[in-house]
Write a structure and sequence with these properties.
258 residues; mainly beta; Jelly Rolls; six-stranded antiparallel sheet; 18 strands
């Protein structure tokens, strides 16, 4: 059992042998659903769609203490993404979309890492290409960000971005997402052409590599996104430690929903 309270600020333990979390937040350990995301759920966005394992990919405790957060038009989810590969890709989550923010900070979600090595891939499409379903016309990118989130750090996800979570480390990743109440996974019918995000994060020669998806382009860089992003988008890091989550909760809620 691994105690994560020093980073979370609330009772949180990782039972890696059973691939589960034990927690208590605001005096409660309730949640709406224990979601186990399967390989077939992720097939539409995988680089290799012929893989057969692992059948169970990652776990999400959805709507933790929902009576408190839902009454404020927000939701709080806990994620447990194991280390490993999906073919040559590092294990990743569903794709989400950050809709228009209703908060003071202009953010749709706040992500806090408690354990492991988390990468958040974000991308913003230009309005002209957002709904272009022509298979011969690449989807145009306005921006792309690759952000590393280490234990104790908080990342703010701005409005108007698609995003996904990736475990590139050798240990399970445990993190939370505080978001507006309607922030669920995207409909993959909207990604039938692209078949995923603009970058695939893969393992090559025991190193983390980024492979561009040819279904995307950027006006300035074409299909080569190397110069569009880095691992140091410091403007998205909030300046406080995650273990102060409880005492800063009202402030954090105000950043995503007034």
């Amino acid at each position: 059992m691994i105690d994560l309270e020093k980073f979370s600020g609330f009772f949180l333990q990782l039972d890696s042998s059973k691939n589960k979390l034990i927690f208590s937040l605001l005096g409660k350990s309730s949640y709406q659903s224990d979601v186990v995301v399967s390989l077939s759920d992720l097939f539409p966005i995988l680089l290799n769609k012929n893989i057969q394992y692992p059948q169970k990919v990652y776990r999400k405790y959805a709507d933790v203490v929902s009576d408190y957060f839902n009454s404020r038009n927000t939701r709080f989810d806990l994620y447990l993404i194991p280390h490993g590969l999906l073919g040559i890709e590092f294990i990743k989550s569903h794709i989400y979309y950050s809709s228009k923010s209703k908060g003071k900070g202009g953010f749709c979600a706040l992500v806090q890492c408690y354990h492991g090595n988390l990468i958040i891939l974000m991308q913003k499409h230009t309005d002209a290409h957002r709904y272009n379903i022509d298979y011969f016309v690449p989807t145009n990118l306005e921006d792309i960000k690759v952000v590393e989130c280490k234990p104790g750090e908080t990342i703010a996800i701005p409005s108007g971005y698609y995003y996904t979570f990736i475990n590139v480390g050798s240990e399970p990743v445990v993190f939370s997402k505080l978001s507006y109440i309607d922030s669920g996974p995207v409909d993959y019918q909207n990604f039938k052409k692209e078949k995923g995000m603009a970058l695939f994060i893969i393992s090559k020669n025991a190193k983390v590599e980024k492979v561009s998806n040819p279904k995307y382009k950027a006006d300035k860089y074409g299909h080569d996104f190397k110069n569009m992003y880095d691992f140091e988008s410091r403007d998205l890091y909030l300046d406080f430690k995650t273990n102060s989550f409880i005492e800063n909760l009202e402030t954090l809620l105000g950043l995503i929903n007034e």
